[in-house]
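Lab notebook: predicted structure, single chain.

Context: the supervisor wants predicted structures on file for every construct in the current expression panel, including those that have not yet been purified. This is the next one on the list. No modifications to the sequence; it matches the entry in the shared construct table.
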Amino acid sequence: MKHITYAEKSLLLGDATADLLLEYAAALGSDGTSDSISIHAISSDGDEVDATFLIGEGSPLMSETTTSTLPEPDNTAAEEHMRERIGRLARPPHGGSLDDDEMLRDDYDEFPG
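Prediction complete. Output recorded below exactly as produced.
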């Protein structure tokens, strides 16, 4: 488990979720975009909570290890979402290339000069 500190609030997350959250925030920051993501966490009171993080460029996130023996909250869906988005940011889809017929076609005759 790791403590994630965000805007002066500290929550406990599983190691993989905490690491992905930071990686995702860095990827969004590099891309100049942002996103919100809901994650199951454990509050400083020990209660299970759902926390929504707004992350991107300038996100005030910090992660630190803990010796907590509490079971990690299940964040399978959030982890899959972050992995997918990190992959898309690293390898954005492209429009593809024009085929030879499209490249050779001369449509300029349609417009009178």
